[in-house]
């Protein structure tokens, strides 16, 4: 597979000039984060017209690529969320114009398809199978590694063309454009440290004093992991964190016997630091604990709780009828949000509102009902007052 290896800054900046003038480019990244908090970018693949470039970030400063991301150039990617984190960290900006082929495929009835399945469906080509555990920091990269990496952008233009044609026929290009806007769904991890406790399943079940402690402890762990560029589990495991929150230790002796809290977490004064954080948590009241927006606003009325299952079933039917990825149309949380009239509920805005949002309100207010279709599906029928 023809491609050019770029490990010279001057060559890379010439490529940037060309990319910023292009109507569209294809982009992918390879990175590792198994032993770090932040993703460590090992390779960037870029396709411009018929040329593919493999950029070596170990030799090249990626920051100037921000000029391309901020230009009018359309950036085509597949399953871009983690790649966006890589680009945001390396360049400080996100693409102004993004087309994510995985998201776009969801509007054509495919459910979070892999790149290989998309290429096989639309292009009729089987992508080479690579070693998912390959070391992308190896230098020089073997020819098989380079070919595998290049294949990740080789067919993105073809997919863009085929998907765009399909979506134009369906009248969904505007839907895809709205869904691919990173500002609608991408959040920098650094901005959410205060909500770190909500990402721990066991922590969400804690109440009272234990919840106060776990919220402060999880935020401390997240900041420590970021500052030291280590996975959070290297600072304190989830099991140990929840155990500390439940026991609220006040002395080093109290730390002993907490499940999951072994000596590796208590080195170099860490035990004193943990105890200090616990004390801060004990000074917090339940009202002070930061909660995600999804937990704010009016609670779901008891009489509407049964409606969640009914609405979910009907929304799934709509997704099937419209050939949409059900998860793309609405999650259970989206349905709960719209039923409780939460602010910024996704089903109350944009294409989702047009497709199901307003009709859900008809259903729960009695202006419509769900009926079983003899063909094996569910339909929403209007109800008329006698």
Structure description:
- This protein is an alpha/beta fold.
- The protein has 3 domains: 183 residues, Nucleotidyltransferase, domain 5 (2-Layer Sandwich); 99 residues, Orthogonal Bundle (DNA polymerase, domain 1), CATH 1.10.150; 89 residues, HRDC domain (DNA polymerase, domain 1), CATH 1.10.150.
- It has a 6-stranded mixed sheet with strand order 1-4-3-2-5-6, sandwiched between helices.
- The CATH class of the largest domain is identified as Alpha Beta
Assembly context of the chains: single chain
Would you identify the CATH architecture of the largest domain? 2-Layer Sandwich
- What structural class do the secondary elements suggest? alpha/beta
**Total domains:** 3
Biggest sheet, in brief?
6 strands, mixed
Say how many strands there are. Answer: 8
Radius of gyration from CA coordinates: 25 Å
What is the third-level CATH name, the topology of the largest domain? Nucleotidyltransferase, domain 5
By DSSP (H or I, 4+ residues per run), the number of helices equals 17
């Amino acid at each position: 597979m023809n491609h050019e290896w770029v490990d010279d800054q001057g060559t890379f900046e010439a490529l940037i000039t060309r990319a910023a003038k292009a109507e569209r480019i294809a982009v992918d990244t390879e990175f590792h984060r198994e032993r770090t908090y932040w993703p460590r970018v090992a390779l960037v693949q870029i396709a411009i017209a018929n040329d593919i470039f493999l950029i070596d970030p170990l030799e090249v400063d990626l920051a100037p690529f921000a000029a391309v991301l901020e230009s009018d150039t359309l950036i085509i990617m597949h399953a871009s969320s983690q790649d966006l984190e890589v680009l945001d960290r390396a360049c400080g900006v996100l693409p102004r114009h993004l087309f994510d082929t995985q998201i776009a495929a969801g509007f054509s009835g495919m459910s979070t398809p892999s790149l290989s399945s998309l290429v096989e469906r639309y292009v009729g080509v089987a992508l080479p199978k690579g070693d998912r555990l390959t070391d992308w920091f190896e230098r020089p990269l073997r020819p098989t590694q380079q070919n595998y990496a290049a294949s990740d952008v080789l067919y993105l233009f073809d997919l863009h063309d085929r998907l765009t044609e399909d979506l134009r026929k369906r009248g969904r290009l505007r839907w895809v454009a709205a869904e691919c806007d990173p500002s609608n769904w991408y959040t920098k991890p650094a901005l959410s440290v205060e909500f770190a406790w909500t990402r721990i399943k066991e922590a969400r079940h804690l109440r009272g004093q234990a919840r106060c402690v776990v919220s402060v402890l999880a935020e401390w762990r997240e900041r420590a992991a970021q500052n030291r560029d280590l996975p959070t589990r290297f600072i304190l495991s989830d099991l140990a964190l929840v155990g500390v929150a439940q026991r609220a230790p006040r002395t080093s002796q109290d730390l002993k016997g907490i499940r999951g809290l072994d000596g590796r977490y208590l080195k170099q004064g860490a035990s004193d630091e943990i105890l200090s954080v616990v004390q801060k948590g004990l000074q917090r009241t339940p009202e002070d604990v930061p909660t995600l927006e999804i937990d704010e606003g009016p609670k779901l009325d008891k009489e509407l709780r049964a409606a969640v299952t009914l609405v979910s079933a009907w929304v799934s039917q709509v997704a099937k009828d419209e050939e949409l990825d059900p998860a793309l149309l609405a999650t259970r949380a989206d349905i709960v949000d719209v039923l409780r009239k939460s602010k910024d509920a996704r089903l109350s805005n944009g294409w989702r509102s047009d497709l199901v949002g307003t009709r859900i309100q008809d259903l729960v207010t009695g202006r419509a009902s769900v009926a079983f279709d003899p063909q094996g599906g569910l339909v929403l029928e209007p109800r008329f007052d006698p």
